[in-house]
Amino acid sequence: MKSDINKAEKKKQLGRPHKAIDEKILANLSQIGCTQEEIGSIVGISARTLQRRFADLLEVNKNKGKASLRKRMYEKAMKGNDKLLIWLSKQYLNMSDRIHNTNTTEPLPLIIEAKAEEVKDLNGKEKG
Question: Around Cβ 121, how many Cβ atoms within 10 Å?
Fold first, then answer.
């Protein structure tokens, strides 16, 4: 039983102690769309450590930020912002501007206009 306690104590002592991170700051930065590299730089830990320790918190708040942005965009579009309404309809309703292309598959006729005096034979002499 004593060996179990020693193993547990050794596991706790391995590696550096965790740096105290304010999760509210992480949540706010994630909501406004900061990357993990940016957040890590601000709070003083690597992006990898941030991902390992706070992946769920970051993901939840990133999605909250996206939903908030969509809500505001939708509200502005419904109040009459035509440009935003068009953009949203293209994004979510698969609408697009109609572009009319005329493709011709027939080749254009080759028209060569030349006078008889201008035509030379293969030796470079004028025919005529």
Answer: 9
HSE (side-chain half, CA atoms, 13 Å) at 64: 13
pLDDT in tens, 21-75: 899 999 999 999 999 999 999 999 999 999 999 999 999 999 999 999 999 999 9
Backbone angles phi, psi at 66, to 5 degrees: -60, -45
30 with 42: CB under 8 angstroms?
no
CA distances (Å), origin 94, targets 49, 61, 68, 85, 120:
39, 27, 22, 13, 61
Q: What is the 3-state secondary structure (H, E, C) of the chain?
A: CHHHHHHHHHHHHCCCCCCCCCHHHHHHHHHCCCCHHHHHHHHCCCHHHHHHHHHHHHHHHHHHHHHHHHHHHHHHHHCCCHHHHHHHHHHHCCCCCCCCCCCCCCCCCCCCCCCHHHCECCCCCECC
What is the model's pTM? Answer: 0.58
**What are the backbone angles phi and psi of residue 120, rounded to the nearest 5°?**
-110, 155
Tell me how far apart the alpha carbons of residues 18 and 87 are, in angstroms, rounded to a whole number: 45
